[in-house]
Amino acid sequence: MGILTRLRSFLFPDSAPAVIGLYGPPNAGKTTLANCIAADWADVSVGEASEVPHETQRAQRADGIEIDHEEGSVTVSVVDTPGVATEVDHAAFFEHGLDEADAQARARGATRGIGESMRVLREEVGGVIYVLDSTGDPRAQVNDMLLGIVEDQGLPLVLVANKVDHDDADADAVAEAFPHYDVVPVSGLTGENTEALYTAIAERFG
Ligand SMILES: Nc1nc2c(ncn2[C@@H]2O[C@H](COP(=O)(O)OP(=O)(O)OP(=O)(O)O)[C@@H](O)[C@H]2O)c(=O)[nH]1
Ligand SMILES: [Mg+2]
Question: One short Pfam family name for this protein (predicted)?
Answer without folding.
Answer: MMR_HSR1
